[in-house]
Design a protein that fits this description.
By secondary structure, the protein is of the alpha+beta class. It contains eight helices and 18 strands. It has two domains: 5-130, Copper amine oxidase-like, N-terminal domain (Copper Amine Oxidase, Chain A, domain 1), CATH 3.30.457; 136-322, Aminopeptidase (3-Layer(aba) Sandwich), CATH 3.40.630. It has a six-stranded mixed beta sheet. A five-stranded antiparallel beta sheet has the order 6-7-8-9-10, covered by helices on one side. The protein has a three-stranded antiparallel beta sheet with strand order 5-12-11. Bound molecules: zinc ion.
């Protein structure tokens, strides 16, 4: 598991020590316990050792506790939230955290290593305060982020005669917003006009506004014109609660689209798209059709088809929400 250089955090100093042997590492709920006295670690998935106690991976513990841990890809901080709106702010390099409006001091500084945030064990006490009363799977959806793919100088896919994905996605995202609003759901748009919004900005907006769900709307293109149909993606290689809910949501959307829209193929897939990876709520991305396929292109050019498609996506979301139990 660990080889080469081992980084040891000790009395606020980082020392590089090569090849320290140790006998065993146990992992339980994001906390590493090390049986050797002189230890560890090398990367984001390996632990730090302070000489007194093992550091805790904030992200991993939050995942096991069902807490949302907003990770800002640009800043070295985390905001841990429960669904009652209580939150805790942590910052790499600081020994102070803000929890439910109060500043408290931990026994040592928080460390950022390879994109993972590590805190001294006292953090577990504060994480416990925020633990969820209700798991994600039974919590009703009240606020949804609808993401119109691309925009501005980013055209997305384009058909030979100049149909641009960015225009179609904006129109469809607006239709989806209207449909969801009819059912009393608050909708947050990542863009509502033809502007370029970088992906980290989109993720940051969704996380900052604490959206309960994220739905990204796209139109596909492939190098082979025979590729066609509707696709819905959830994040690949994820196994936490958020990922499970994303898969369920993707399944419901695909089911509704298949029921009421004539699509060539329906596929439910997993992928590592940026917006799926960095949004801290169940998230899916829909590829409504292939602009590179002549039949798909004719369909998606038709506004009635787009309306039907977005009504089906909305029903899938509402169906997913309906199956939850308060
Ligand atoms: Zn796209």
């Amino acid at each position: 598991m660990v080889s080469g250089l081992l980084r040891v955090w000790y009395k606020n100093k980082v020392m590089m020590i090569s090849k320290i042997g140790f006998s065993a590492v146990l992992f339980a709920g994001g906390v590493f316990f090390l049986s050797n006295s002189a230890t560890l670690a090398d990367s984001g998935s390996s632990p730090f050792f302070t000489g007194r106690a093992a550091y805790v991976s904030v992200d991993a513990v939050c995942r096991t506790k069902g807490l949302r841990c907003n990770r800002d890809p640009l800043l070295k901080n985390r905001v841990v939230k429960n669904f009652s709106g209580d939150f805790m702010k942590l910052h790499a390099g600081s020994e102070y955290i803000l929890i439910q409006g109060k500043v408290v001091r931990l026994e040592d500084k928080i460390i950022l290593s390879n994109d993972a945030l590590w805190a001294p064990p006292m953090i577990l006490k504060y994480i416990k305060r925020l633990e969820l009363k209700k798991p994600l799977g039974v919590r009703r959806i009240r606020k949804i982020a609808v993401d119109a793919g691309h925009g501005g100088q980013d055209f997305g896919a384009m058909s030979p005669e100049g149909f641009k994905e960015k225009d179609l996605t904006l129109e469809m995202a607006t239709l989806l917003r209207d449909e969801l609003q009819k059912h009393g759901i608050e909708v947050l748009m990542t863009r509502d006009k033809d502007v370029f919004v970088p992906l980290p900005e989109r993720a940051r907006l969704v996380n900052e506004k604490s959206a309960d769900l994220f739905v990204s709307v796209h139109v596909n293109a492939a190098t082979t014109p025979t590729m066609n149909g509707f696709e819905v993606y959830s994040l690949a290689d994820a196994s936490d609660d958020v990922a499970k809910e994303s898969e369920k949501l993707a399944g419901r959307i695909a089911g509704e689209v298949e029921k009421s829209v004539t699509v060539a193929h329906k596929r439910v897939k997993a992928a590592g798209f940026y917006v799926l990876k960095w949004t801290d709520c169940p998230a899916v991305l829909v590829e409504t059709a292939y602009l590179s396929n002549p039949e798909d292109k004719e369909k998606i050019k038709d506004s009635a088809y787009r309306e039907k498609m977005m009504a089906a996506v909305a029903r899938g979301i509402l169906d997913y929400n309906e199956k939850k139990r308060d």
